[in-house]
Write a structure and sequence with these properties.
The chain has 418 residues and is of the alpha/beta class. 47% of the residues lie in helices and 12% in strands. It contains 17 helices and 8 strands. Strand 5, helix 5 and strand 6 form a beta-alpha-beta unit. The structure holds guanosine-5'-triphosphate and magnesium ion. GO terms for molecular function: GTP binding; GTPase activity; metal ion binding.
Length: 418
């Protein structure tokens, strides 16, 4: 049976120490991650969808250490879902960074509540010795919550952990930001844990793993639909046909199902194999062809705006997971090419002697889903479009822009990633 923790270990082998950046949305987790990486302030103008995973090589007088920062966004499914996602990584993490927006007293008790859930989980995963650092972030703003008050509220929930609170800001020069002190503390804690042999246990009992899966889908007794759907997607992906067979089934109007999972996998496989420009046209042409000719889709109609929406979201996700993917997109994959259709696609794949573009592996699709779990939510479009706009005849026939908020921008993300 697939267990999430085994999967996480397979996809991100522990060559460096995993440190998740957790906390409520809008607290500054992403800004901090890239601030640590570049030692300079960066602009993060939109909430994180899914995760940012970055390698952070840290240098100290006493030695060097490599940390992999997992910034788990509150921009998808809310803090509860982010907390559930964190459970994939927590049992094998070296430490936890909990970020509080110290300028926002109104959300303090919400932050404590989420923190308590995470600490309970660590307790049950037998990781009650894991170092926890609380960042009283945005300390540049006026009237920050006093550190004593933060200690009073958070400390009772993590008494068994090495624990420290530091004020931090990304709005000052790096050396004055408080961040170097945090990293030095983390380094000393990781070294100490290493000496005591606490972090060496990568193995987790089957019982604990099964508990983690249960934790992933159940939260305080209430079932989380998104987490369940993610689990369904991962289980399906594990036993699914190869990407080559899957594309063949698409061309032959013979897919095993015509549902949200199938659409996401189709978009993923085609966009990673052929790049955005070519892949987008292939998806448009291929879907129209399929809907017009397959018995599976007799009552369906092609929807231009919906198709464009999912292409944009899946492509955004592919670019987000690119840093951790083993699959290399084709050269010039994003450059402009002439219109390509599904019949061109079969030519590309089947021409004798031609070198076919390589398709991504199953692991790459797992990785994509884990980093971008929001794609499992078939109602995600409602965050961007009102029902009236999306269901209008105009939106069905041509691309209509969202009326609620702009779609996540690759340009912005790439500026941040530089
Ligand atoms: N004043 C101030 N603002 C900051 C600081 N760090 C981040 N911000 C701002 O806080 C806002 C939220 O930052 P993000 O990094 O997107 O927050 P996040 O925790 O990643 O949010 P989600 O992705 O929604 O979970 C942005 O407007 C940042 O520019 C800081 O040190 N000082
Ligand atoms: Mg973020």
């Amino acid at each position: 049976m697939l267990t999430f923790q085994t999967l996480a270990q397979r996809l991100w082998p522990s060559t460096s120490y995993r440190v998740p950046f957790l906390g409520l949305d809008f607290t500054g987790k992403t800004t901090l991650l890239y601030y640590i990486q570049s030692e300079a302030d960066v602009i993060t103008p939109y909430p994180t969808m899914g995760m940012n995973i970055e390698s952070l090589p840290l240098h100290f007088a006493k030695g060097n250490v490599s940390i992999t920062g997992f910034d788990i966004g509150g921009g998808c499914g809310g803090p509860r879902f982010a907390g559930q996602l964190a459970r994939f990584y927590l049992p094998t993490s070296a430490a936890v960074i909990w970020v509080v927006d110290s300028s926002d007293k109104t959300r303090l008790s919400e932050s404590v509540e989420e923190f308590e859930h995470i600490m309970d989980f660590l307790q049950r995963s037998q990781r009650s010795e894991m170092p926890v650092v609380l960042l009283a972030h945005k300390s540049d703003l006026t009237n920050p919550i006093p550190l004593d008050e933060l200690r009073r509220m958070f400390w009772p929930h993590c008494k068994t952990h090495p624990f420290a609170i530091f004020p931090t800001t990304c709005r000052r020069p790096y050396k004055e930001s408080g961040v170097p002190v945090v990293l030095a503390w983390l380094y000393s804690q990781i070294q100490a844990a290493e000496l005591l042999g606490q972090h060496s246990s990568e193995e987790t009992s089957t019982e604990t793993q099964e508990q983690n899966v249960k934790e992933m889908t159940t939260y305080s007794g209430s079932t989380n639909k998104l987490a369940r759907r993610l689990e369904d997607f991962l289980i399906r992906a594990e036993s699914d046909s190869s990407p080559e067979v899957f594309l063949q089934q698409f061309r032959e109007l013979n897919l095993p199902a015509w549902d949200h999972y199938t659409h996401i996998r189709l978009a993923y496989v085609i966009l990673t194999t052929y790049g955005r420009q070519k892949g987008k046209n292939m998806i448009f042409d291929g879907l129209q062809h399929y809907i017009a000719n397959s018995k599976q889709t007799t009552s369906r109609a092609f929807h231009v705006t919906m198709t464009y929406f999912w292409i944009q979201l899946v492509h955004f996700g592919i670019r987000s997971s690119a840093a951790t993917s083993s699959h290399q997109p084709p050269p010039n994959s994003d450059s402009s090419t002439t219109l390509t259709s599904m019949s061109d696609a079969s030519t590309l794949v089947d021409t004798p002697g031609a070198v076919p573009p390589s398709t991504p592996s199953t692991d790459d699709f797992f990785r994509f889903l884990l980093i971008n779990p929001y794609v499992v939510d078939s109602n995600l479009w409602t965050d961007y479009y009102s029902k009236d706009v999306m269901m209008s005849p105009k939106a069905k026939e041509e691309m209509v822009l969202p009326d609620k908020q702009p779609l996540p921008s690759l340009l912005v993300r790439d500026t941040i990633r530089r």
